[in-house]
Design brief:
The chain is of the alpha/beta class. The protein is 56% helix and 14% strand. The strands form three sheets. The protein has a four-stranded mixed β-sheet.
């Protein structure tokens, strides 16, 4: 995710902090200082927020580690002002597995609540579940009491049956046990949108923050519905059905001027680079333009004739097989910085798979489905 700083890896999963989260910490610190002029209050408030988001990260690791049990990897976990995001490569195929992954996150918060309750009871402190999050008054609830209360709130909020909360995925998994995945997703997304409307109405008459949550829920439900439609359209389709077969290739020793000619002559954006029958790289439009911009004026007049394709091409290239399932190839492409994947058949380059062409294929299939 852009504007994110990596803070290391835990259990093989990269953990990132978005710059907006750092900005939130600064804003909270300044707000507490302006109202209290107390350094201990600032330390307490910022420390509480860090502890809260540590709980959020643990919540996301619950999802990630449960998904790993079913062979699903997690690309990274990013800490945002609105919470944490664990980017799973995909959701498990079986509804029962998706149900387990969805419940694993809130289960972590339940464990945290239980542990905090044990600690508070051991020290003779009352269990205050309606503690205010940022109440810094001396008579207010303690630090651990507020942390426990917020974890209870996280469990309740995340279990609302609305995407993108965990409750929406739980609802989809339960529905998918009785109907197909796409229909289950559409039904769960409809429920999520109803919740979004309810949040918007309540926010208009009470707390405007609920209106922001309404937008968040509505967009999450819409994205899940689109993703399910895409999955249903691509199910059982091979790469050969959606690949580009009319394409141009370059040789490693070709000058960049040759690449410019091909770029201007047609609509192809990225070019596979072949050494005989072997694919050795891909020359992307962006790499070509960057190389041209770095040339001297004399070389620029000749479209970068001093450089060869091999000097500019991307070497770390994913390859697809023509008989591979399209949804699997698309999933691999989404985890790659390149938007073009050379397609081979019996070791021979026969086509290109691009995100744009997959989009066109889906549009055609949807049009045909409406006609039928």
């Amino acid at each position: 995710m852009k504007w994110s700083l990596s803070v290391g890896r835990i259990a093989g999963i990269r953990v990132q902090i978005h710059l907006t989260f750092i900005a939130l910490l600064v804003w909270i610190g300044l707000s507490i200082w302006s109202s209290s002029k107390s350094v201990p209050a600032v330390v307490s408030g910022v420390g509480f927020l860090l502890a809260l988001f540590l709980c959020v990260v643990l919540h996301e690791f619950g999802h990630a580690l449960m998904a790993r049990r079913y062979g699903v990897r997690t690309r990274d976990i990013t800490l945002l002002p609105i919470g944490g995001v664990a980017r799973l490569e995909r959701m498990p195929e079986k509804p029962s597995q998706e149900l387990a992954v969805a419940l694993a996150g809130p289960a972590v918060n339940v464990v945290i609540v239980i542990l905090l309750a044990i600690v508070l009871t051991a020290f003779g402190q009352p269990l205050v579940f309606n503690a205010l999050v940022f109440d810094e008054s001396a008579a207010g609830p303690g630090w651990l009491q507020r942390l426990m209360a917020v974890n209870v709130l996280l469990v309740v909020f995340n279990m609302l049956p609305a995407f993108p909360m965990d409750g929406g995925r739980v609802l989809r998994a339960l529905l998918a046990m009785r109907m197909n995945y796409a229909r289950a997703t559409r039904s769960a997304a409809t429920v999520g949108k109803l919740f979004a409307v309810g949040f918007a109405i309540l926010g208009f008459y009470s707390n405007p923050f609920l209106m922001l949550i309404a937008v968040f829920v509505w967009l999450g439900a819409s994205q899940e519905s689109v993703a399910a439609t895409l999955k249903g359209t691509l199910d059982g389709i091979k790469v050969s059905s959606a690949m580009i077969t009319d394409f141009r290739a370059l040789a490693p020793e070709d000058p960049l001027s040759r690449a410019v000619e091909l770029l201007l002559a047609g609509s192809q954006q990225d070019f596979p680079v072949t050494d005989g029958a072997r694919v050795v790289g891909v020359l992307t439009r962006q790499s070509l333009l960057t190389a041209l911009a770095s040339q001297t004026d004399g070389a620029r007049a000749g479209y970068g004739s001093q450089q060869r394709v091999v000097d500019v091409m991307q070497r770390d290239v994913l390859l697809a097989d023509a008989d591979e399932m399209l949804d699997e190839a698309l999933l691999r492409m989404q985890g790659s910085p390149l938007r073009t994947m050379p397609v081979l058949s019996l070791g021979t380059l026969v086509g290109l798979l691009t995100m744009e062409n997959v989009g066109e294929f889906v549009s055609v299939q949807n049009a045909l489905a409406r006609t039928r």
